[in-house]
């Protein structure tokens, strides 16, 4: 009879320990995932607008137990290379959810994309869409501020905002500057109205959400058809950051968005600000007419 060596016994014991550990890990993983959880295509999408509070909107809604949010911007419907991966790839980017929960994602570039409205309609013509808007001039400044901050962190030169929003040759508003184009809301809104009925698109007032997030989110809860859940207890005003932070259920401390949110904006020269107000007045009125929703952007 050949007796096993000490090395053989050690290898067998280690193998058994590894198998036991793997089995325990798999068992723990299975227990954490409810048996009826699965990934589904989103029933609601935040389609924009960039620099209007899309991240805050999604994170606030993520506190609701009936809402599951995708952690990242998927950009499935506006980027051809991702769209070509197919709906199954898109579904895999969604979070696990249970029956009765609503899955959401947000990609702000959808709002200005020529292809996104039709592609989303082809996926689900009953999907609910949310668009959050701010004063178009404020949005332009916020857009510029983000680019300025990134360039400065790389020690790159930065052009003053006045030199970008105003054409140096004509002295008029520079339509080639992309942040200006994004803020002409009616031209992008019209594409969505060609594909979806108005009742499927909810507009969130981004300026109001900064000072009174709960009132806007209650309207969103109603639009999405989820039970009323969010209350004043879920929001705490941070005097240092000058905006509201979240207090998630079961937690005593607040959770604020990253330091990229709430940056200090540059002040426009009065003449430039007035020129932008005059420019956007007509475009804002066209948006009011198309959307059936009036704001008071021209007053500020």
UniProtKB/TrEMBL annotation:
Disulfide bonds join 245-256. The active site is at 51 (for sulfotransferase activity). The keyword Signal applies. InterPro entries: NST/OST, P-loop_NTPase, Sulfotransferase_dom. It holds the Pfam family Sulfotransfer_1. Residues 1-23 form the signal peptide. This is Sulfotransferase domain-containing protein. It comes from Capitella teleta.
